[in-house]
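Exercise 3.2. Students should predict the tertiary structure of the chain below and write it as structure tokens, then compare their answer with the key that follows.

Predict this chain's 3D structure.
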Amino acid sequence: MSETTLKISHAVKIEESNCVSFKVGLHASLHRSQYDLLQNVSPELVQFPKGMMERWGELIMMECQSPSKGRTYSRFTPLMNEKDVERRRLLASFFGIIRGNIYLPDGPKREAALKLDAKLHRFRGMQHGGSKMARSARIAALEKDLEELTAEVETLGLTATVQRLHEVTTEYESLSMERVKQHVDEKRPTMRETRREADVYYERACRLVEAAHLMATTDEAREAIERLVDLMNRAVRESKRTYHEMLGQRRRYKKKEAPIDGSVDDASGGVS
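Answer key:
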């Protein structure tokens, strides 16, 4: 009885990119690199379903648009950012004045500052970090507590600051609602949705390339796909290297970045 030997070639693997963690520019750059490598691949090597590459290309273009049109799809976002920067400064000034008056000699201002500090200690540092929407909620809670402290606020000359903080937050919320309405009216996907769909197409393309290597019937076809996979893996490694470099730079920058709290160093180098 004759025996038939089935020769199975070794499998190729396109490396995981972890591109879900990438910022918009790097994420789009990796997708564009991989798309460019695959769009002109001969159908004899890899067969992609009809319309797949076209849709993937559209998603990449959507992500590559300018921030005001691509990431947020809204002209309101930069205006909201300006309002948030202003209220962060107002908060820094507000708490800075309270802290500064605590160190005055005994008197009405020191007494008012101590009372405000005791009541509002849970709000300290709210101008740092956190989401902008969360900051709006905390400002609303702050204003509620200040209803019982109007005399102390006036004693420290903070009435105008509190009023302006309320106005700016109201303007921010109004812009936020306008942005939501714009998204609904335009019925355009969010950046997160666009990226998520693009990632699905990229993963599908990778699996089709790997399957094509297993199904190849000639050494020439297998070698061509192996060269393609090697180029794709190089692009993945380069993107991951760039990602880690950017992450390291952000961490170093955060260590050097001074807080926006209006603090003043004392003679010993500490914060008063």
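Discussion points: The chain has a mean pLDDT of 84. The chain has two domains: 19-70+189-243, 76-186.
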